[in-house]
Structure formats: structure tokens, C-alpha cells
Specification:
Elements: E1 2-4, E2 7-11, H1 17-33, H2 46-55, E3 57-62, E4 68-75, H3 79-82, E5 89-97, H4 106-120, E6 125-131, H5 135-143, E7 147-156, E8 162-171
Parallel strand pairs: 5-6
Antiparallel strand pairs: 1-2, 2-3, 3-4, 4-5, 6-8, 7-8
Length: 181
Amino acid sequence: MIIDDGIVFRQAEEKDACTLVALYDGAAHWMHEQGIEQWKPGDKDSAHFRAIMREGEVWLASDDDGHTIGAYELWWSDEEAWGIQPPVAGYVHRLMVEREAAPAGTGRRLLEHSERRIARTGRERARLDCVSTNPRLLAYYQSAGYRVVGELPNKVGKDGRVYGVILLEKRLDQLTLVNPA
């Protein structure tokens, strides 16, 4: 467990899978209400999050009272979007914030935590992708220091839906590792 300025980070365990599903569904509902076509409620179940816990990492963020306020997935490869790559990066997925409970800036704090976690493994880059139809999210990641390094116009989702993603990357070799992760 890591406490970072009032946010408690811990790696998710199997017992947290239902919490993660609820967090995902809440974020998907919020996106839908905002007119953002990206996540759909019910697309990720407990089995999805348990599989990611086995293959990568899932981190939960809580407030001082123990209420979950966010989470993210950290993968060590992402061949589907990035192809086969040398092990120089960590791949951030499903950055989720509990809109009703999270203080302002929680999303950025989750992103910073993921970057420190990646850097601590000796990897020099954080990578992520965002759907090309979400310019607000693209601007958010760029304001956090990510730069566009490519685009995958025909990514195929698990449901067979084809959509475009923009590939983003941030160099971490200059990152100062002050807080543990």
C-alpha cells in the first residue's frame, strides 16, 4: 500500500474484481452521458480484470476513508495495438475515475502513479492509446506530456467493432522517482 498525498494506492486482488467492474461501468455510463463513444457498460466483467491481474497489474486508488476513487490497468506488452516491441515500455489501459467521489486531479494522479511504477521496473516509456474519435481525451494525455507516435486506424474490438486509436508515448528516463510505487 502506498499513500501519495491523501490517495492510497494498492495493487488489486481477485476480491476487487466486482469493484473494478462497477468502476468501469460507471465510467462507461459517464462517457455515454457526455456523448463519448468509447466504453460500453457491461463490456468488462470480473473475468477480464482477474485475467489482467494475472498477466499484468491492476491498481486501485482510495481516499482516506477507504472509498475507491479510481483504478488503472498496467500491461507489460500490447501487441494488439503496438505490435511486437522490445521490453522498454509499460502500457496503461482503462484509466478509470469515480466521478462522484474522486477529488479533482485524480485521473492525473493515477497516470503519474502508473508512470512511476513503469519507471521503477527500469522501462523508459509509458504508452497508451485512445480512440481517435475522442479529441478531449487526446488533449488530456498530451497535456500530461504524452506525444502522438502513431495511429492504428483499424483496431478490431472483442465485439468485432472496428475503430481507430491514436498511439501515445511518454519518455520516463527523466522522471524523478520521489514517491514509492
